[in-house]
Amino acid sequence: DGDGFEKDREEGLGWLNKARDERNLIEGHDIQEPDPDADFQQQIVDLELDGEDPVTMRNVGNDLLDGIGVEQDLEQGRSWLRKAAEAEDLDAMRSLANRLLGGDGFAKNLEEGCSWLRKAAEAGDPWTMWRLGHCLLDGDGFEKDLEEGRSWLRKAAEAEDPQAMRVLGQFLLEGDGFEQDLAEGRSWLRRAAETE
Question: How far is CA 26 from CA 29, 44, 48, in A?
């Protein structure tokens, strides 16, 4: 790309070869020699995706969606991020949910975004537990469900998510969505402060 450096295709290919050799040595992979006539960006993606590790798929998907280190490619980025989420990578599920809910790199799709948010929460991701609980309490993308929203927010706080602890503490202090409980509210706010 020449991003921050003078563009030099041969030096770039040399670094790709070095990365390939290092990865072969460390991980025992048999990565093919980069083709000097092939699309340079595709070689980077191919090098990163050897073995189709969900974490790598997520990282490459997000990089392609955001144009970080490679030319932005929404179609490929969406594809890799979905594959990582379908492979049950929690961070990919969270990223996909957020992108779908916010229309970031994807067409805004509340139904699918909420579905991925729920999958990540059910798989144990504290941050998505907090977000799901908050969405259910507010009716943001979901039908408002105070009981389920309180349950997810409490699970997230108990899983030591500081943001969930703060929100739960504040809701308990104010009696917003919860029965007011000043002592428990203060306790959660204190724990949030100690956790951060």
Answer: 8, 18, 14
- Kindly report the three-state secondary structure assignment for every residue of 17-68: HHHHHHHHHHHCCCCCCCCCCCCHHHHHHHHHCCCCCHHHHHHHHHHHHHCC
CA end-to-end span of the chain: 39
Question: Collapsing DSSP states into helix, strand and coil, what is residue 186?
Answer: helix
Write down the pTM of the prediction.
Answer: 0.69
What pLDDT digit, counting tens, does each position of 114-130 carry? Answer: 999 999 999 999 999 99
DSSP secondary structure string for all residues of 98-161: HHHHHTSSS---HHHHHHHHHHHHHTT-HHHHHHHHHHHHHTSSS---HHHHHHHHHHHHHTT-
User: Which distant-in-sequence residues (6+ apart) come within 8 Å of 175 by Cβ?
Assistant: none
